[in-house]
């Protein structure tokens, strides 16, 4: 849990913004609390709001949320080999509690210490801390929605927290190349609906990184 | 369908989406074998996903690409990277980045 604390302010600000956004889009306080406590999905919650506001079909709301969450399918594919020995029930809940920040910290740990013995405890503790910070800040946001102007740009605090996670992951050449490609694709694909550009950028970056890794490893010809 | 029922159904839909996206692959567990290339490519997933999110947040203002010197977002991002290189402090990046953003914005609009 201690590992998560430096990211507290970022997660906190992002939760606060999501809480404010839910109320401002017309949900009641109880409905906002329900969405936050049950769905626990920052960007998917935000993506669902405009659809709910126009009474879009339920299947569309659900599908949109799944698509916004697609990057977690990629995350889970990596976690699978580390947590695969746990019971199905445990895996169900660990998956649910996987946030962006938690996942990045965990993969940074594995890069340094692939056989870290307490990894399940590490993961559980970090995920719990993330969930608590997120929910507390969302709830404050829900109740303080009237008092916090959107012009503060508080959501940027979340962005800076992600930036702090990103930099240490860029130590090696393949990762740097992948990140560069991901940024370019993200900019080009920015206008795709449902944050599909994010998924496209991630996949393109991964492909570039692995291609670069191969080139660097093979003897010079 | 009345409004309250609709909203709560939608909330449950988004909740189901969280579980489906995050847990389904974990539940498949060892039954699903991925090619080794895909397994090693996955190690780069977090860096690439984070880079894409951050790029979207910093390089765009009001939905349009803005790489000019009048966009306080990516300039503040640059300041944040320098702070991280110098201090290795996450809180420094968050607080310093926000302060830089507010100062730059006030400067550009003032």
Please name the defining characteristics of this protein.
heterodimer, A: 221 residues, mainly alpha, 2 domains, 11 helices, globular, B: 110 residues, two-stranded antiparallel sheet, 2 strands, extended
Characterization of this structure:
- The complex is a heterodimer of chains A (221) and B (110).
- Chain A is mainly alpha-helical and 221 residues long.
- Chain A folds into 2 domains: 2-169, no CATH class; 172-216, no CATH class.
- Helices cover 73% and strands 0% of the residues of chain A.
- Chain A is built from 11 helices and no strands.
- Chain A is globular, with a radius of gyration of 19 Å.
- In chain A, 49% of the residues are buried.
- Chain B folds into 2 domains: 1-33; 44-109, no CATH class.
- Chain B is built from 5 helices and 2 strands.
- In chain B, helix 4 (72-87) runs antiparallel to helix 5.
- The interface between A and B is large, with 93 and 70 residues.
Largest interface: A-B, 93 and 70 residues
Number of strands of chain A: 0
What would the principal axes of the Cα set say about the shape of chain B? extended
The helix fraction of chain B, in percent, is: over 70%
Cα Rg of chain B: 21 Å
Averaged pLDDT of chain A, please? 74
Low-confidence stretches of chain B: none
The largest pleated sheet of chain B is described as: 2 strands, antiparallel
Helix content of chain A: over 70%
- DSSP strand content of chain B: under 5%
Strand content of chain A: under 5%
Cα-to-Cα separation, first versus last residue of chain A: 48 Å
Distance between the termini of chain B: 51 Å
The assembly state of the depicted protein chains is heterodimer
User: Structural class given helices, strands, pairing of chain A?
Assistant: mainly alpha
Order of helices and strands of chain B: HHHEEHH
Order of helices and strands of chain A: HHHHHHHHHHH
Indicate the low-confidence ranges of chain A by residue numbers. Answer: none
Shape of chain A: globular
| Number of continuous helical runs of chain A | 11
């Amino acid at each position: 849990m201690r590992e998560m604390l430096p990211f507290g302010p970022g997660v906190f600000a992002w939760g606060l913004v999501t809480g404010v956004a839910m109320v401002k889009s017309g949900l009641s306080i109880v409905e906002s609390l329900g969405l936050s406590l049950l769905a626990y999905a920052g960007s998917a919650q935000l993506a669902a709001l405009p659809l709910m506001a126009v009474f879009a079909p339920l299947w569309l709301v659900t599908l949109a949320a799944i698509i916004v969450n697609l990057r977690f399918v990629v995350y889970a594919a990596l976690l699978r080999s580390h947590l695969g020995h746990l019971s199905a029930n445990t895996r169900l809940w660990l998956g649910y509690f996987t946030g962006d920040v938690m996942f990045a910290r965990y993969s940074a740990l594995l890069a340094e210490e692939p056989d870290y013995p307490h990894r399940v405890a590490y993961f559980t503790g970090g995920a719990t801390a993330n969930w608590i910070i997120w929910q507390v800040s969302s709830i404050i946001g829900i109740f303080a929605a009237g008092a916090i102007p959107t012009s503060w740009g508080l959501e940027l605090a979340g962005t800076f927290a992600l930036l702090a996670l990103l930099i240490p992951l860029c130590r090696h050449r393949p990762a740097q190349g992948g990140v560069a490609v991901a940024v370019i694709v993200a900019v080009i694909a920015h206008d795709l609906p449902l944050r599909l550009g994010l998924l496209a950028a991630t996949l393109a970056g991964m492909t570039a990184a692995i291609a670069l890794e191969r080139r660097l490893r093979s003897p010079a010809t | 369908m009345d409004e309250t029922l609709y909203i709560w159904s939608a909330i449950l839909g988004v909740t189901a989406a969280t579980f489906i996206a995050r847990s389904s692959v974990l539940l498949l567990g060892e039954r699903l074998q991925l090619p080794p290339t895909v397994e090693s490519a996955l190690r780069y997933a977090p860096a690439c996903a984070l880079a894409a999110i951050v790029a979207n947040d910093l390089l765009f203002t009001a939905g349009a690409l803005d790489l000019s010197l009048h966009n306080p977002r990516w300039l503040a991002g640059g300041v944040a990277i320098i702070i991280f290189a110098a201090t290795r402090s996450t809180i420094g990046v968050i607080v310093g980045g926000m302060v830089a953003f507010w100062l730059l914005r006030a400067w550009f609009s003032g």
